[in-house]
Amino acid sequence: xxxxxxxxxxxxxxxxxxxxxxxxxxxxxxxxxxxxxxxxxxxxxxxxxxxxxxxxxxxxxxxxxxxxxxxxxxxxxxxxxxxxxxxxxxxxxxxxxxxxxxxxxxxxxxxxxxxxxxxxxxxxxxxxxxxxxxxxxxxxxxxxxxxxxxxxxxxxxxxxxxxxxxxxxxxxxxxxxxxxxxxxxxxxxxxxxxxxxxxxxxxxxxxxxxxxxxxxxxxxxxxxxxxxxxxxxxxxxxxxxxxxxxxxxxxxxxxxxxxxxxxxxxxxxxxxxxxxxxxxxxxxxxxxxxxxxxxxxxxxxxxxxxxxxxxxxxxxxxxxxxxxxxxxxxxxxxxxxxxxxxxxxxxxxxxxxxxxxxxxxxxxxxxxxxxxxxxxxxxxxxxxxxxxxxxxxxxxxxxxxxxxxxxxxxxxxxxxxxxxxxxxxxxxxxxxxxxxxxxxxxxxxxxxxxxxxxxxxxxxxxxxxxxxxxxxxxxxxxxxxxxxxxxxxxxx
Length: 492
Known about the structure:
Blueprint: H1 16-35, H2 42-49, H3 53-65, H4 67-81, H5 83-103, H6 107-117, H7 123-134, H8 137-169, H9 174-196, H10 220-244, H11 254-278, H12 280-284, H13 295-326, H14 331-343, H15 345-359, H16 361-379, H17 388-412, H18 421-443, H19 448-469, E1 476-480, E2 486-490
Antiparallel strand pairs: 1-2
Helix pairs in contact: 1-5, 1-7, 1-8, 1-9, 3-6, 3-10, 3-13, 3-18, 4-5, 4-7, 4-18, 5-6, 5-7, 5-9, 7-8, 7-18, 8-9, 8-14, 8-15, 8-17, 10-11, 10-18, 13-14, 13-17, 13-18, 13-19, 14-17, 15-16, 15-17, 16-17, 16-19, 18-19
């Protein structure tokens, strides 16, 4: 592997691939701003609607639940219809759902709106495919890191800005006006993105999957592996159903809970049927070596994103309230303190991509996962006795490893199989939400200290899997042109 730095990027350029990068990270920024517009306003929402602590924790879980299937669906749609149209429709839809959230006047309505808004979290997948189309392998890690990091900062921006916006607007309805405003911004930018973005550079081919409905694999063993890795996606939704059922929050009665379990079971076997249908040729004949890829790569990246992005989603969701309850600060100050965790996205995620481009993708990811484990172990020790500057430093240091790890994960995703980048990104991204559901569910049963320790222990296990199972991308991958000729794409 070359040890040279990637070719320089002019971040102040607004033409060609840099224009695409800027347009797309802003789209992601807005999607995250919308997705987490509730987190810094939870104390106001709790008082306005008279919600219990368990209902607040349920909103946190609901916010990340729908994103699991949404990222799979969006991954298929972006591979088939292109990122420009898919991103524009997603942003416009999320803007409408923000309006529904803003007018909710009881827990049932606000819970449904929050559940549906989880769909906007799938926007990340779209940009991964778009950036992968515009940037070469020597730059894709850094470009994806900038896209993810600067876009991810939307959650920090929401934490810093929305409490003040709600305060300025005043009254019990301040949180309503603040969240509704984010929806209006999303609708306006949906139009801008559609009119300004392009799926590929001029003259380039947009490779589409040969079949839709499931990811293509290239061996029988990989098909079995794929089927197994599908199960946790439905299991996470099953955990959410159990949490809402009669044994816990009692939002669903026994009939609806059992019906949900039955639907999820049927959905899993339906997906298995689709996997076999799409890949039936693999059962009867071998795929030529030139077209093979290892699904093991996808599986390891799934787990790595479960612990990186999954923990980020969980921590960003709970941190403002954690600081509010732990320290003697206002809601606005708690939001500002919590924003430090997401603030590091501006630097950390691009750094993870750049380090991955320069020093190797597996080595970088292993080191960052180790740092993440240590960071959460330190956060587990935070108490009201800590002084606030030290808390901010600990939070931001932990955050650096979390988000740099995310950048390292998606520095690899576009290098596995180009025509399925959206679907691979969708599955990897969905595992991030699986992690969020698992960690937030754990938080509803344990105190924050044990919550942070659980994430740290999970990171150690995933670090071991990455060290021994992940393979460094090298050489070229083959894609078939519309005329039947084979196009080779450099990946390392």
